[in-house]
Fold:
Amino acid sequence: MNFNEYMKENIVVFDGAMGTMLQKKGLKLGEIPETLNIVQRDEIIEIHKEYLDAGANVITSNTFGANEQKLLNSGYSVEEVIDAAVSLANEAKNSIKSNNVFVALDIGPIGELLEPMGTLSFNRAYEIFKRQVVQGVKSGADLILIETMTDLYEMKAAVLAAKENSNIPVVATMSFEKDHRTFTGCLPSSMAVTLEGLGVDGLGINCSLGPREIYPIVEDLLKWTNVPILVQANAGLPVVRNGETFYDVDEEEFSSEVEKFVKLGVKMVGGCCGTTPSYIKAIKNKINSVYTAKVNKKSFSALCSPSQTVLIDGVKVIGERINPTGKKLFKEALRNNDIDYILQQGLSQVEAGAHILDVNVGLPEINEAEMMVNIIKKLQSVTDVPLQIDSSDAAVIEAGLRYYNGKAIVNSVNGEDRVLEKILPLVKKYGAAVVGLTLDDRGIPDNAQDRYNIAEKIVNKAMLYGIKKEDIYIDTLTLTCSAQQKEVVETIKTLTLVKNNLGVKTVLGISNISFGMPKREIINETFLSIAMSAGLDLPIINPNDKSMMDKISAFNVLYNHDAGAKEYIAKYAYEKPDAKISYENDKKIKEQLNLTDIVVKGLKENAAIAVRELIKTKDELQIVNEYLIPALDIVGDDYEKGIIFLPQLIQSAETVKSAFNVLKENLKNKESASITNGKIILATVKGDIHDIGKNIVKVILENYNYEIIDLGRDVPAERIVEESKKYDELVIVGLSALMTTTMKSMEKTIKELRENNINCKVVVGGAVLTHEYAEKIGADYYAKDAKEAVEIAKKIFEK
Ligand code: B1M
Structure:
């Protein structure tokens, strides 16, 4: 019996933690656990056997970190380590002669953040995972378990690597925090719809929390998928006693909680950190080996980015503005690679209420596929609405789908066989939704029945390729009433036919209806209202057209899509009459954005332009204090409240950096006195990677002619002491810390400087610090900002 067949009939019990068991067996801290597959084979086999004896059906190879980055200095190759690990698991499996035991190739995160949060590219991540998958399959793994992921993009790279390089089942789990988000902001719903689309055999949750905290997240997850769910909780939350970490949930409690998961409908269970064979045994004893929970089949249409899932359960808006057709400025932006202009088009539509953004970057003179990928990546780092990949070129669609993070919608296919055969497999492979246009090689039929027949053909063909009905959207095509007046009603009739007979969602571009007519808005609004009552789900419109948006909000109330009119009331109850922003003129958008907005929105390329403008009337520190710091405060607050997530925080930080580069250049060009005023060692303390503030202080001090020795960020106390020892004369040691957790490192650094009798004055700064705290930890001075740092330096060196 293979894994999937077994899962169909049974609840599958995975093993518990490998790390906990290795520690129990005396693994030294700092040792690479995966190398033990080679040097301590017997211990690893023993751990697998203990889990098998406890009743586990799946044992997980000791390969969590067996990737080329983590094994770099281990002396072993990925292939050697994985081959040894999978062989050991198979040796244990073969020793018990059961048909119901499977070896999972374990794959954990690479340990480096992917772009745009970090520097690792998606392709590089894919290659790293591919190497693990290829060896795992070669060595005889029965399934692949990708676990403890917190970034959906990294998960996608791993799943693609697994699916494209193996035929064995893939189970994929992510780690969530108590707020139901992963550390990068990914939602359970987004994980579910994305991974189900990518065709995994199981998905779920592991690590981070104990079973009690995970329970509500499982309840949430179950609403979003029909794929079997795996839950591997920690043995509670960690408690540190006498320097050792314990978990606070014992076997009895753990297994009772796991039983509740099974009753909810979870098909696969096991344990993560802190769990041991006795936990697995307790689970096995507690749960019924036969699957009893009745789980209703879910049927819904949804699109997502990692941090937003959009359910198509009423009229939702697709923003049409990222499209060069008929837009001179947009075409220019594409030709000049003016990405920020395009991003602004996206952001303004999201602010105006778009739920999805259409992305069309087709222009004959540019590389459309490259541009599509670039725009998708950039848009996904400044906004989290799902995207519609709009192109007629299969290569562009594939590139877009591969690098999109989440579940996208493809616009479009039509009734032509050659188009369907090319694009539908891509839609299926990448788990997207698709729009089908009711036209074929004979053109657009002039009557509703013929258009309906094409729609039916598209739906049937898409389903034949394995695309779910819920992921198919039909566009019945809007023709202009000025030229084809008689056919307008055919579009509406087709909508009704499609809705009533095919039961799929519908899409329609609205504004084309009024082309060539005066007072176009009258026609547009009326057509929109008629189409919505005929069954339109996704109008493609300009969301900055408030009147159109108002019609949609009202329609959703009247058709009972907006329960209790909650959204309507939230939107209109407090609307000020003068709150309208005019987006009519594209150029105006650019002018309206000031540097603070630019940073908050993360429009990196625009920052330099704005700074160059501002520098004409303000000095560098004014720009830092009046624009950059307040913007970062807004971003920091939004991050804390869960309004934005790490990718957006990073994008804003990058924007500040590019603004600051201009300020730096400007300062360099200014004249300053030529004598060196004294040496200042600067560092952000151990554990802290925030360095924007420290870098500002550095540049300002340099401008006052102090010699700066910049040790960078995340600097251990020992290194700061070592560097300070090099100087006999009095130096300033300037320390920066931005987090409550790293204030301790600052204290430690000062203590070590004092213990080593360094001839220095310590100046500390950073948003979390206060005068009182600075004094308490033994600093000589506290500088609230860069200007004060200069005053203090003057005082110290002039004494
Ligand atoms: Co993060 N971060 N961040 N972050 N980040 C904060 C600090 C946070 C308050 C946000 C929040 O939740 N509201 C929060 C800390 C909570 C706490 O402990 N109280 C936080 C967190 C939690 C995190 C992460 C843990 C997030 C995560 O990964 N889940 C992570 C930390 C990783 C780590 O350090 N181990 C993280 C990561 C990041 C980014 C990488 C995305 C980015 C930093 C990029 C970089 O620096 N290269 C970032 C950013 C940008 C921020 C906020 C938004 C802005 C910080 C900043 O640059 N301020 C911040 C929220 C906020 O502060 N509003 C936040 C502007 C800067 C000019 O001010 O550094 O205070 P500041 O410097 C001033 C003065 O203080 C003084 O002069 C400077 C100029 O006037 N000064 C000195 C500073 N150092 C001095 C030294 C001197 C003298 C004066 O010596 C002579």
Notes: The radius of gyration is 30 Å. Residues 183, 629, 632-633, 635-636, 639-640, 646, 649-650, 653, 687-694, 696-697, 734, 736, 738-741, 763, 765-768, 783, 785-786, 789 surround CO-5-methoxybenzimidazolylcobamide (CB under 6 Å). Residues 646-668 form the longest helix (23 residues).
